[in-house]
Design goal:
Elements lengths: L14 H8 L5 H14 L4 H15 L2 H5 L9 H6 L11 H15 L6 H10 L2 H23 L17
Helix pairs in contact: 2-8, 3-6, 3-8, 6-8
Length: about 170
């Protein structure tokens, strides 16, 4: 990708913040509200949330998303080092493994979600949790790719504060 944003950005403006605050203003505030809802209203436990989120960040190759830590005091760096690299890592729970696998399949091959996979998901998650997971993953795919496609993912100089999902 280029080293410059794919939209015109005034030189004194942060590209990421400019895209999200001053472009497509009929949609971006609503998209930002959905993104905020993912981080503040998800019912997923933080490690399951982060397993799925991190896997999508890797797939999207979004620098901002790969470096983001939703709850740095609750999830250690060793966890992040194994997501997408070693699904059999002994410190992952079955639900964390499934959350990462769900995210990967959703992003790369959603048609591979066969009955066997859904049986494993239903053995570990309630339907509400699966819908929650799907909405989170969908938002990360869309918004992480938007940042990456417009090449604003590494440019943010605005300090971001992590939030834990409720």
């Amino acid at each position: 990708m280029s080293a410059m944003p794919r939209i015109s950005v005034p030189p004194d403006r942060d590209p990421l913040m400019f895209l999200w605050s001053e472009r497509a203003t009929g949609l971006t505030p609503k998209a930002a509200a959905f993104s905020d809802a993912v981080y503040t209203a998800s019912s997923l436990p933080i490690r399951e949330f982060e397993a799925a989120r991190t896997r999508i960040a890797q797939i999207n190759d979004c620098k901002l998303c790969r470096e983001w830590r939703t709850a740095p005091d609750e999830v250690d760096e060793e966890f992040y080092a194994h997501v997408g690299v070693d699904p059999s890592w002994s410190q992952f729970s079955e639900r964390e493994r499934l959350a990462a696998e769900f995210a990967e399949r959703f992003a790369l091959d959603h048609l591979s979600m066969d009955d066997e996979f859904w049986s494993r998901l239903h053995a570990a998650f309630a339907d509400d949790e699966l819908v929650d997971l799907g909405l989170c993953v969908g938002s990360w795919i869309a918004f992480g790719r938007l940042n990456r496609v417009f090449d604003v993912d590494g440019a943010c100089r605005v300090p971001l504060h992590s939030q834990s999902p409720s």
